[in-house]
Amino acid sequence: MTADQQPPFRDPRLSLERRVDDLLGRLTLEEKTALLHQFTPGVARLGVGPFRTGQEALHGVAWMGPATVFPQAVGLGATWNAELVRRIGAAVSTEVRAMRADDDRVGLNVWAPTVNLLRHPWWGRNEEGYAEDPKLTAATAVAYTRGLRGDHPAYWRTAPVLKHWLAHNNETDRATRSSSVRPRVLHEYDLRAFREPVEAGAVAGVMPAYNLVNGRPNHLSPYLREKLRTWTERELLVCSDAGAPSNLVDSEHYFDTHEEATAAALRAGVDSFTDHGTDPSVVIGRIRGALARGLIGEDDIDTAVRRQLTVRFTLGEFDPELDPYRDVKDIDSPRHRELARRAAEEAVVLLKNDGSLPLTPGRRIAVVGPLADECKLDWYSGTLIHRSTPLDGLRSRFGADRVTFADGADRVRIRAEVGGGLQVPASEAADEQRGADGALDPALLAGRTDLPPLTCGEEPTTFALTDWGDGVITLRAPDGRYLSVAEDGYVRASADQPGGWVVQETFRLVPHDDGGHLLAHLGTGRHVAVAADGVKVADQGDRFEIETVERGEEAVTRVASDADVVIVVAGNDPHINGRETEDRTTLALPGRMDRLWRAAHATGTDTVLVLVSSYPYAVPDARAALPALLWTAHGGQAAGTALARILAGDVSPAGRLPQTWYADDTDLPGLFDYDIIGSRQTYLYFDGTPLFPFGHGLSYSTFGYDGLEVAAPADGEETLPVRVTVTNTGARAADEVVQIYAREEAPRVPRPHRQLVGYARVPLGPGESRTVETAVRLTELGHHDVAHGRWTLPGGVYVIEAGASSADIRATARVTLPGEAPRARAVRANGLSAADYDEQRGTEIVDRAKTRGDAVAPVGEDGELLFRECDFGGGVARVAAEVSGGPGSVELSLPGGEAVAALAVPATGGPYDHTSVHAEVSLTGVHDLRVTLRGRIRLARLDFSG
């Protein structure tokens, strides 16, 4: 068949829109319906192959075998280096393409990056985000998606989908919890992280989050239509999160039937349903049921299929001979290995240094702690091809004879009440797990049932017990294998690392009333018991005595006493106490890890604390006592090499904190409080003194700032030019991260203390100067005006600051900008939308209707809303409240306590059954208005008339 005989959708000379429309028109309704599940069948009669949405690629290709593993996303955020992140995105998408060539299970629609802002450091998925700041997050996401997309004008290397739309920062009750997000926070904070990457043109779509926002599931978000799809002319693909469509009925009870739920999600803009795994029959049956009931029409299905086909054409599926990426074979290349090392180096943040670093040659080094000889992966990592731990890196850099090691674990023997002590039996199968280098092969370990289970005997095995906090422990056999429980319930020493969706390697010691402990297995919720055929988990556990052979602090003291410097490496395992499905409960370093640095410090040996973690810790005592502290996210395959090069001074550290490190849990609001303005969250609004501020990070050199220039924009210009000169005033080559902040000098509404508006990571030789220029968009200086429902730039004086962190400002300039004059709320003409309050107490925003709109409800018996500067003009005599729920009341008063009106709210029949209640009022001029809500009511709006 010649090119002219091919159907139009096969003709690359035609426009993308024409080709998509042609293919769409050739599909039957049944074929189109089948395309709405994540795993789509092919259409053989048209030569269309199967397709699936979704390939995890957060910091490397995940779940598909050996791949280059880069630092966690929060570590990439800590580099403050957009160009580096773009190159990493390109490397990751190159490996996706290479793996796809050999394995058609590998998808080209990649679900990455995660752009949820790191609002609260207890969030279990902190490791997946880039920063607490929308500017830094958006810029990093733009870079990563551009790398994933590739630079061909027509064909994309991969098609990135941003996660997770919208305002998602808690794992606790994540499928049923609603985030109350006031309009200012929505527009100034959460939406910004998504908007800039979409506008940059390298995003194929988004994935809605499990949670609800303002009472409405994200899979029904009206903002998909009202915001997301207005930011670009491209067709964007919205892929549901796994199982979320079923949650609309099963856990959220938002609809009575799955047909209603599926229809509502489709109409809201969900185009691909990730539900029931690889089996599409359930979802397709629901769509057909919705069609039969008239809940959706064929045009709704066409809209979703068109968006999916657009992505498939863009990926070159229908033009294989023209696809520029079809022959990509690059996996684990020297270029990718070098990129992984550089990223790991640039992610290291030097938190404190009183001169102990860099390490001088010839010193004897003790490296200790539970992360000292670990290269941890997380849920979204690929399989390591290369592995470098801090111990590996330090021995390689300084010589194995100069470096000693202690993992800091307690050595314990566990004796059952009857039967003797727990033993790990010898096994040839276990020996076969080791490679030529002696390392355990993770591909052979987890869930094995061919190894013998633990037994009991007179000579108990000595286990290494590591406490990861909150009483969660792991136990390792002398050869390094973790105790694990397989599907048959037996306890074996069989795991290279804790891992899996349900971790089977974690336990908790539970004190027994008669002395000793029960050993609870957290993965199954059962207890360890001794049986005739081996140790297993059971409903009723046996009582054990724990004999401590050596405490971890004793081993640390021993090796530290014989060293010139001790490096304590502590932190988290990404599969334990803070991960997807599990939030943290504290910022504190686990108690036993805290004792390790104290033991090392007590010897009088120089002690450096390295925190390797997915999130911040509160370590005020360590900051006060120790000469040097560093932090790095889990740094991927080159983590140990990178850390050693930083400690040795081969590279000057230049990572910067992408989120605030607080001094104590009391600095934090509740995990579910999404109002960063009202509860004073993140560096933007936090009123206290952080342990380490946003943007903080030290260097082995010093830098001077000079000549900050800000020019007022001419009429019609939309940017504010900013220039500052930075000079390396030290003796070492180093990078400085120049940070530009802005603030309104005399705001009339709560505004950030300062907000990031630009940054640059600048390499400088000793004595070298460079002028950094940035153009600040004027819109970034504005805010969402709730009084008038739009974005506004108030006129007045703005302060532009340049510095080394949000708390280390080195140069300041002022500029007067024209803008809008302040205006009171025209409430007589426009009324008051309840959610557009200025301040609140004890309320939450809820859904006014299932499709769109907001209302406000008290959380307890009552709640208050405050509306500033309400203009009642020449006078109003009547107020009408749109309410639902009930019974209860709406009471209006002036802030001084003067009552204005009281409106009784009868029971309306349900939360979506609205009614209007009225009362007489007498108000003229401009006043602040307080509205008190009592009872189980929802207030949507207030309207005033003369």
Automatic annotation (TrEMBL):
- Ranges for domain Fibronectin type III-like: 736-806
Record's keyword annotation contains Isomerase: no
Domain of life of the organism encoding this protein:
Bacteria
Question: Which controlled-vocabulary keywords does the entry list?
Answer: Hydrolase, Signal
State the family named in the UniProt similarity comment for this chain: Belongs to the glycosyl hydrolase 3 family.
Family matches, as PANTHER family:
BETA-D-XYLOSIDASE 5-RELATED, SUGAR HYDROLASE-RELATED
Protein's recorded name: Glycoside hydrolase family 3 C-terminal domain-containing protein
Give the source species: Streptomyces hebeiensis
